[in-house]
Structure to design on (341 residues):
């Protein structure tokens, strides 16, 4: 039988344990540990801070979630933790959403109404920002509007390839589309991050989140924003909403590149084929697609294999691909490579 949830007194007691350093008495992934962890999450504390409070490495927590999601045994501690984690985030979000809903709709506060519309991607900002794609219904989301599960797919992809690349500490990681800096913080803290975002608000959040050695600019990444950089750049992470290749082409033509490069791309062109009957080729041109369903389905399925990959192989010589990985999440394609010359 499941024990009763922790009472507030128990939480206070455990916090004392944390303060006195006797946290070791609570076994990570035990029922009480998970209960306490998710209690903080439900209260709205962000996961990384909760890991710090619970005196575990956040990278370990993410690994447990990854293992739990991949596990065939739903009763394993990792699987239990993964599902409780997801549920707690959703509950926390529901609590905050209902508060904002009250402020925006019931109390008719136009500031919260405007904030809500903006978060939903219902208003276009000025300038050349990409539109926030519609997110999957339900489920927790990241500040960028994408589902948390998509974010974790991206993290797993990066972890796999970075592990294989075995890079030294302190290499240069170029992170255009840095957003709030979630990926940069999680993946590249041990490197020197140079990043940019067209949205000053997002860039400001990234600055506060990332190590002091980082340089974050407000810039359009469809230009090379670091002409002064001597590099060499070893990691380039193009986590765009829909089209990463304009930024890649600029990087490729202008950046000082290392002999080994690890690169990641987030490509949303399949949604464009489905909804707009066209896609933007990685080389830049808009390509119309016949509107009948069968052609669109065929194009969507073959787009990566027949369009993106051959273009990439043609573009990179004298480099060639050493490792390659791709994951698809709904209409997004996340892919990465290690290339060498
Ligand atoms: C998917 S989000 C990136 C999330 C980020 N990787 C993270 O981990 O938080 C895409 C970001 O690209 C930015 N963006 C869109 N168009 C851009 C452009 N032309 N130049 C620079 N940033 C751009 C958006 O403001 C948004 O923050």
């Amino acid at each position: 039988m499941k024990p009763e949830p922790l009472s507030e007194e128990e939480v206070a007691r455990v916090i004392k344990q944390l303060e006195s350093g006797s946290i070791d008495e609570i076994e990570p992934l035990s029922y009480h540990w998970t209960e306490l962890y998710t209690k903080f999450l439900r209260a709205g504390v962000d996961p990384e801070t909760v890991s710090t409070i619970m005196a575990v490495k956040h990278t370990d927590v993410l690994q447990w979630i990854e293992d739990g999601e991949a596990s065939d045994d739903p009763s394993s501690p990792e699987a239990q933790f993964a599902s409780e984690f997801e549920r707690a985030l959703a509950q926390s979000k529901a609590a905050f959403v209902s508060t904002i809903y009250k402020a925006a709709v019931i109390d008719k506060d136009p500031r919260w109404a405007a904030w809500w519309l903006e978060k939903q991607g219902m208003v276009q900002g000025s300038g050349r920002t990409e539109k926030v794609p519609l997110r999957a219904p339900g489920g927790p989301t990241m500040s960028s509007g994408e589902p948390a599960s998509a974010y974790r797919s991206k993290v797993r992809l990066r972890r796999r390839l970075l592990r294989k690349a075995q890079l030294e500490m302190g290499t240069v990681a170029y992170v255009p589309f840095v957003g709030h800096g979630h990926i940069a913080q999680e993946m590249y803290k041990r490197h020197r991050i140079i990043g940019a975002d067209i949205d000053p608000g997002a860039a400001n959040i990234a600055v506060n989140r990332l190590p002091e050695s980082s340089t974050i600019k407000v810039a359009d990444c469809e230009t090379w924003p670091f002409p002064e950089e001597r590099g060499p750049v070893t990691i380039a992470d193009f986590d765009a909403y829909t089209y990463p290749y304009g930024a890649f082409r600029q990087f490729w033509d202008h950046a000082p590149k290392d002999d080994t490069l690890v690169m990641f791309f987030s490509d949303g062109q399949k949604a464009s084929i489905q909804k707009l009957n066209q896609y933007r080729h990685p080389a830049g041109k808009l390509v119309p697609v016949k509107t009948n369903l069968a052609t669109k389905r065929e194009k969507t399925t073959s787009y990566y294999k027949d369009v993106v990959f051959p273009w990439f192989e043609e573009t990179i010589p004298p480099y060639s691909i050493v490792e390659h990985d791709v994951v698809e999440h709904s209409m997004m394609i996340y892919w990465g490579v290690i290339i060498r010359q």
User: Anything to note?
Assistant: Residues 128-130, 144, 176-183, 196-199, 202, 220-222, 239-241 surround S-adenosylmethionine (CB under 6 Å). The chain has two domains: 1-123, 148-340.
